[in-house]
Amino acid sequence: MIKKREPYTEVYTLGQHIYMSAHKARRIIDQIRGRSYEETLMILELMPYRACYPIFKLIYSAAANASHNMGFNEADSIISKVEVNEGTTMKRLKPRARGRSYLIKRPTCHITIVLKDVSLDEEYLIWLRKYEWIYRKKSTNMMCRDKYGSGVVWDKK
């Protein structure tokens, strides 16, 4: 049996040569993976790390690409995949006493963010209903999202 699916349900952005270590970027990326677009923006605005700003710009750019190029609604988007890879390391020499020099390494990283439109992906909605992250109100027969759960395994009802 062949299932018909919408071919374009994902939009990605790639930020290359961002001046921060991959370890510091992963600390933030692990907090936003799998969350909705609006929730991600709120989290990034309130986190006290310097690495949040470039990630915030990349997510904002991915949403702008999705709404302009593909016609996606930003409220229905989730962060489906996020990768942080190490980039090149810039090496600089700092002058020291007695004519010596000291090597300074400036690490860079590449960040890839994939936004997925949940409204077009029916299999994802079925999966969310199965684990009770989306439920249907019996009184009004409307779909409701669990806004207090972060979407990880231990947040199940």
Automatic annotation (TrEMBL):
- One GO term of the cellular component aspect? large ribosomal subunit
GO molecular-function terms, A-Z: rRNA binding; structural constituent of ribosome
Location relative to the cell: Plastid, Chloroplast
Q: Which SUPFAM superfamilies match?
A: Ribosomal protein L22
Q: Please provide the record's keywords in A-Z order.
A: Chloroplast, Plastid, Ribonucleoprotein, Ribosomal protein, RNA-binding, rRNA-binding
Keyword NAD belongs to the record? no
Which CDD domains did the record assign? Ribosomal_L22
Output the Pfam families linked to this UniProt entry. Ribosomal_L22
Q: Which GO terms describe its biological process?
A: translation
Q: Report if keyword rRNA-binding is assigned.
A: yes
What the record says about family reads:
Belongs to the universal ribosomal protein uL22 family.
Q: How does it assemble?
A: Part of the 50S ribosomal subunit.
Function summary:
The globular domain of the protein is located near the polypeptide exit tunnel on the outside of the subunit, while an extended beta-hairpin is found that lines the wall of the exit tunnel in the center of the 70S ribosome.
Give the PANTHER family listed for this entry: CHLOROPLAST 50S RIBOSOMAL PROTEIN L22-RELATED (PTHR13501), LARGE RIBOSOMAL SUBUNIT PROTEIN UL22M (PTHR13501:SF10)
Xref: NCBIfam families: rplV_bact
Protein name from the UniProt record: Large ribosomal subunit protein uL22c
Species in which this protein is naturally found: Sabia yunnanensis
GN (gene name): rpl22
